[in-house]
Automatic annotation (TrEMBL):
Subcellular compartments: Cell membrane
Signal peptide (UniProt feature, chain positions): none
Assigned GO CC terms: plasma membrane
HAMAP family named among the record's database cross-references: UPF0344
Main localization of the protein described in the UniProt heading: membrane
Superkingdom of this protein's organism: Bacteria
Membrane topology listed for this record: Multi-pass membrane protein
Matching InterPro entries: UPF0344
Family indicated by similarity: Belongs to the UPF0344 family.
Regions that span the bilayer: 6-25, 37-57, 69-86, 98-117
Name used for this protein in its record: UPF0344 protein KP78_19990
Length: 123
């Protein structure tokens, strides 16, 4: 089951949805709801890293450099989601984090769909 990319895709799609739900709750002043969704999102970070890490250890022999970059980019997407939510709670500016989040997400999606396992939209 972990050999295919389905579980990995499911986990990062759910993580992205939870991220935007947490943002919406923050913007509507629902601190408690935001806290709960943020906690669930953190669990999904672990699932994304676990499913991605499994694919990495299983297939990185195909192209160690590109799979290494995919690993790093995936972790960066998670890091920027977390930094946006934490900085929002602290009332700090999130502009730079948003730019970095969008760039790293686009690069991750492009590279993920380009790499040979699963869907190959860009080949
Ligand atoms: C939110 C963060 C992430 C996003 C949006 C993301 C996105 C993707 C996408 C679009 C694919 C291609 C799926 C397919 O072709 O069927 C993929 C595959 C993969 N991801 Fe992620 N990923 C994320 C996090 C991670 C992390 C943290 C790791 C490593 C720990 C990782 C490692 C991999 C590997 C090794 C593959 C297989 C590449 C291939 O298609 O050959 N990803 N990911």
């Amino acid at each position: 089951m972990l050999d295919s990319t389905h579980l990995h895709i499911t986990s990062w799609v759910i993580a992205l949805i939870l991220f935007f739900v947490a943002l919406a709750l923050h913007n509507s002043g629902q601190a408690k709801g935001n806290k709960i969704v943020h906690m669930v999102l953190r669990l999904f970070y672990v699932v994304v890293i676990f499913t991605g890490g499994y694919l990495f250890f299983e297939y990185s022999d195909i192209n160690a450099a590109l799979y290494g970059v995919k690993f790093l980019l995936g972790v960066l997407v998670i890091a920027f989601m977390e930094m946006i939510l934490v900085r929002l709670k602290k009332g700090k500016s999130t502009k730079v984090m948003w730019i970095l989040f969008v760039i790293s997400l686009l690069c991750t999606l492009y590279l993920g769909f380009r790499l040979p396992i699963g869907f190959n939209f860009f080949m």
